[in-house]
């Protein structure tokens, strides 16, 4: 496996990031943890320094411990004494206990950054996909956990657009604070199952709210002059609009509205790509009534982040997965959603 995506499996369609080993059936928790390469433990171990300040031999560092993977001794983080690791199998069992009615089936799981981050994504069964004016969106539940002290254990819902498997409101930025189960690594999770069920039971309303807002976006055409403003909001780019921008009717290209002298060549190419996706090249635009809407504009941004955004380095697809779920890509999507909902 490449550097960022250490191990993972997927069921059914190839994920948008193109990573992982395919399995031929929906897995149980026990099968999933093995298929994902997550059947290992972590432990807190003391840290020593050697031959420091004239002191021969090893001296223990008080107040700090290393989080080490027991299968190979790899150190995943250095943290304080109060840190309590959540083992992968405990996270999987916790997930099973929370969805005790078997309402979810594991579709993908794996580790990133050499084991520092792990995740589990499951599709919710029973009620079928949401329809946004005929555009199908499936309901998934995501668990994330960190072994480096930088990510708490979290569970929340995330919609996935069926036509292209775009992760619409991915990772942390896509879950409202009141609809996420969150557990710091200073407390055990075993006694928090009922609390998680309560939080996630409430968040079934997340999909009601999401459906209402998404349907609203799909019912409204995006004024041409707003599209460049959407781009600058989503990508958090402070640019100047040309004089009179947004004051006249008619179709406008981003270059007709934005003063591109303020932008880098790379940013111009980004904006042009998103515009092409919005105007005709994006997936799902053949769904009746979707083209030209705010919903189409949002999905153009999402498709760019999930599929089109260029990453450098030796393992660009790994970075795509990491940034889309855990970092800048997720924030781009959220800013686009927020802009379109408010306008």
Question: What this model shows, in words?
Answer:
Helix content is 33%, strand content 26%. With 343 residues, the protein is an alpha+beta fold. The chain has three domains: 5-39 and 84-212, no CATH class; 42-80, no CATH class; 216-342, no CATH class. Strands 1, 2, 6, 7, 8, 9, 10, 11 and 12 form a nine-stranded mixed sheet that branches. A three-stranded antiparallel sheet has the order 3-4-5, with no helix packed on it. A hairpin with a 4-residue loop joins strand 10 (153-161) and strand 11. The longest helix has 17 residues, at 265-281. It starts with a strand and ends with a helix.
Please render the helix and strand layout as text.
Elements: E1 5-11, E2 21-23, H1 29-35, E3 42-52, E4 55-69, E5 75-80, H2 88-98, E6 104-112, E7 117-124, E8 130-132, E9 135-146, E10 153-161, E11 166-167, E12 181-183, H3 193-202, H4 204-218, H5 226-234, H6 254-257, H7 265-281, H8 294-308, H9 316-326, H10 328-342
Parallel strand pairs: 1-2
Antiparallel strand pairs: 1-6, 3-4, 4-5, 6-7, 7-9, 8-9, 9-10, 10-11, 10-12
Mean pLDDT: 78
End-to-end distance, in Å?
Answer: 43 Å
Number of E strands: 12
Percent helix range: 25-40%
Instruction: List the domain count as a whole number.
Output: 3
Query: Count of helices?
Result: 10
Report the C-alpha radius of gyration, rounded: 22 Å
Largest sheet: 9 strands, mixed
Strand content: 25-35%
Shape: globular
């Amino acid at each position: 496996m490449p550097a960022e995506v250490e191990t993972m499996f997927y069921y059914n369609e190839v994920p948008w990031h193109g990573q992982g080993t395919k399995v031929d059936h929906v897995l149980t928790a026990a099968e999933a943890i093995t298929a994902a390469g997550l059947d290992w433990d972590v432990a807190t171990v003391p840290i020593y320094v050697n031959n420091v300040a004239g002191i021969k031999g090893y001296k223990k560092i008080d107040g700090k411990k290393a989080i080490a993977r027991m299968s190979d001794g790899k150190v995943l983080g250095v943290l304080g004494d109060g840190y309590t690791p959540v083992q992968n199998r405990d996270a999987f069992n916790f997930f099973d206990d929370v969805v005790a009615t078997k309402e979810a089936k594991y579709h993908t799981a794996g580790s990133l950054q050499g084991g520092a981050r792990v995740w589990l994504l499951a599709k919710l069964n029973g009620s079928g996909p949401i329809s946004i004016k005929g555009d199908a969106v499936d309901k998934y539940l995501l668990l994330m956990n960190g072994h480096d002290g930088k990510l708490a254990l979290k569970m929340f819902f995330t919609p996935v657009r069926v036509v292209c498997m775009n992760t619409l409101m991915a990772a942390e930025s896509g879950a409202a604070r009141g609809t996420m189960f969150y557990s710091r690594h200073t407390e055990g999770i075993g006694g928090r199952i009922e609390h998680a069920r309560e939080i996630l039971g409430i968040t079934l309303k997340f999909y009601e709210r999401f459906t209402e807002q998404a349907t609203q976006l799909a019912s409204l055409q995006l004024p041409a002059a707003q599209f460049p403003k959407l781009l600058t909001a989503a990508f958090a780019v402070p640019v100047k609009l040309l004089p009179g921008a947004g004051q006249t009717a008619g179709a406008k290209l981003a270059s007709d509205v934005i003063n591109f002298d303020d932008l880098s060549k790379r940013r111009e190419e980004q904006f042009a790509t998103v515009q092409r996706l919005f105007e005709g090249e994006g997936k799902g635009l053949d769904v009746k009534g979707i083209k030209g809407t705010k919903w189409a504009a949002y999905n153009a941004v999402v498709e760019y982040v999930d599929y089109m955004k260029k990453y450098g380095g030796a393992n660009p697809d790994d970075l795509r997965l990491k940034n889309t779920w855990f970092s800048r890509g997720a924030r781009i999507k959220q800013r686009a959603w927020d802009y379109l909902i408010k306008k």
